[in-house]
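Researcher: Let's continue the batch. This sequence belongs to Putative peptidase S10, serine carboxypeptidase, alpha/Beta hydrolase, and it's 455 residues. Same format as the previous ones, please.
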Amino acid sequence: MSWRSSCVVVVIFLLPLLPFLVSPASVVKNLPGYNGVLPFNLEAGYIGVGEGEEVQIFHLFVESQRNPNIDPVLLWFVGGPGCSGLSPFFFENGPLRMVSNYSGDIPNLELNPYGWTQRLNMIFIDMPVGTGYSYSETQQGYYSSDTQFVEHSYTFLQKWFIDHPKFGSNPLYIGGGSYSGLVIAPLVQKLYEGYIARNKPLLNIEGYVIASPGADTYLDRNMKVLYAYQMGLIPEDLYESMKENCDGNFVNIDPENTKCVSDYEAYSEIVRYINPQQILEPLCATTPALRQGIIQLVQDGPEFLCRSYDHILVNTWANDENVRKALHIREGTKEEFFRCNKTLAYTMGKLNVIEYYRNLTNANIQALVYTSDLDMTVPHLSTQQWIKSFNMSLHDKWRAWFVDGQVAGFTEIYKMKEDHYLTYVSVKGAGHVAQTFKPKETYQMIDRWFSFSLI
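Model: Same format as before. Here are the structure tokens for Putative peptidase S10, serine carboxypeptidase, alpha/Beta hydrolase:
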């Protein structure tokens, strides 16, 4: 018997004993709600991190539908913390989207014509532990923090690239929106330091993409007052009084400063019914009972539609038994899936990561930071302020950018180091975060940016 044939015999003997070595077990070809075979390559599975790999992180991986062998790999985080990767997978930049109106047991799925996986390899992740389908084998493992978020993400990437060696030379980018901006900065710095040190496996980090990013919690909250004034939500006399009486500090207000307290209460009363996610859209009920009642109202009269109600659909879909089987969800690990888990044992420690982003201006990486002009949750004013504080040289001055001949927003490009740049983009008419509200425009933006052409 030849060497080649003897190896075949050994492989045939081992496979039944070690089923976890068979990579096709994580391949997903069909998903409940989608008619037919998926027209893209999808994987679903877990990677163990932490001490003894007690924390099991669930993720989805979609190969680029263009040229996966050379296209960048983008790990995409969502805000929260505690919101599942299924949220951007269906409602932001993933390859599929949920159909609001459906009949049957679960929502229907359709292709997203503006999914970023048309030109990027993308990983959607349930991070931190306790989010989505991710779980811990011990109770202690469920206690997490910003620091552990970064450590677990770094380990996750190391193991993912070991499992996917064919993507080892692809450019790696880290991206996400909202709260994830607070963990992306230290994670990218850790990845870059590991790359410079030539740690194995070598993670080819080339940049980051952040949307309406949390970077300085105090600054974001403080800038809401100026934003409200500039958008015509509060009158000039109240704004000027707040500036004077509060001395520009609208967050840590001294309770003994009665004039400031009075002004802030007046401000809060005015904006309390404004939807901070998108100031021109209706403010929707958040309690389950009210949601159920208003959803019924929406079905009877479509004139009042809240896009956030679509998020409820993903809970229905993800808790379906057939969906769990299709995604290879391990039985007994998560009793119920929630799009956003509000009960995490999580410590928010890094409330200001501006210095991390400042340090990254000295690294050989590219950066894309984009915001939404109708977002009051993370006002574009605060993002612009911390970017300008870096005192980078201006490469391309403020100008409009266009989609289909119409202004889609505005952009400005700063030079960081050598041929590396920080591109700032505002998306006109978008809320928190932009791709949820302006999918076509943000797809054009990301496609141009990764093509190294002007946005």
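Researcher: Any comment?
Model: The domain at 24-217+349-450 is CATH 3.40.50.1820 (Rossmann fold).
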